[in-house]
Amino acid sequence: MATNDSTYLRVADGFSQTLATVQESEWDNPTPCDQWDASELVAHVVATHQRVYSMVNQNGIDELNDDATLLEQWKVVNETLKRALNDPTLANAPVRARAGEQPFSALVEGLLMIDTLCHTWDLARAVNANESLDGAAVAIAYEKLTEMGDAIRVPGGFKDAITSLPTADPQTQFLNFTGRAV
C-alpha cells in the first residue's frame, strides 16, 4: 500500500510539477527520446500508466477521456494509481511482469517509478524546466536497473549505457546508464 514515503508517489508528483511548467508553444519540442516530442512523451507516460493499471482492473480507467488535454489525462491516471496503491486488494494483487509475478504495488514502485522518473527528466530537458530529480528515487532506480543489467536494453526499453565521467553525480550516472546523454 502507498504511504507518504512512497518513491513512486514522490516521482509522480515530480512529473506533475514538470508537466505543469509546459507552455503551449513547447508541446512540439523534441525530447531526448528520439521518437517523441513533448506531447508524445506525455501521451506515452499516460498510456504506460493505463497499461499498468489494467493489470489489476481489466476495465482500465473509466474516467479517462481521450478528448481531455494531456494534463487532464495525467491527472486522471495519477489519481487512479494513487487510489489503487491505497487499496489493499489492488496493491497486493499479483501481476505478471518481466521479472515474474509480483504484487501490483511492487511493479508500480519498481518499473513504473523508474519509467516515470526517466521521463520526468526527458520532459524537463525538452521544455527547459528544472532537471533535478528526487535523489532518493534516483538511487533506488539506479540500483534496480544495475541489478537488471543489459536486460533493460530491449526494443522499447533503454538505449546502450553511456560511460559516465568519474566525477559524475548520481543523477548523471543514472541517466547515462539509461542511455541518456546529460
Description:
There is one protein chain. The protein has 182 residues and is mainly α. The protein has a domain at 7-133: Four Helix Bundle (Hemerythrin (Met), subunit A) (Up-down Bundle), CATH 1.20.120. Helix content is 53%, strand content 4%. The chain has seven helices and two strands. It has helices at residues 7-20, 38-53, 70-85, 88-91, 104-127, 135-148, 170-177, and strands spanning 94-97, 100-103. It has a two-stranded antiparallel sheet with strand order 1-2. Helix 1 runs antiparallel to helix 3. It is globular. The mean pLDDT is 93.
Low-pLDDT runs of 5+ residues are none
User: The CATH topology of the domain at 7-133 is what?
Assistant: Four Helix Bundle (Hemerythrin (Met), subunit A)
Sequence of strands across the biggest β-sheet: 1-2
CATH class bucket of the domain at 7-133: Mainly Alpha
How would a crystallographer describe the biggest sheet?
2 strands, antiparallel
What level of helicity do the residues show? 40-55%
Fold topology:
Blueprint (H helix, E strand, L loop, with lengths): L6 H14 L17 H16 L16 H16 L2 H4 L2 E4 L2 E4 H24 L7 H14 L21 H8 L5
Antiparallel strand pairs: 1-2
Helix pairs in contact: 1-3, 1-5, 2-3, 2-5, 5-6, 6-7
Keywords, separated by commas or semicolons:
182 residues, mainly alpha, Four Helix Bundle (Hemerythrin (Met), subunit A)
Quick structural gist:
The protein is 53% helix and 4% strand. It has 182 residues and is mainly α.
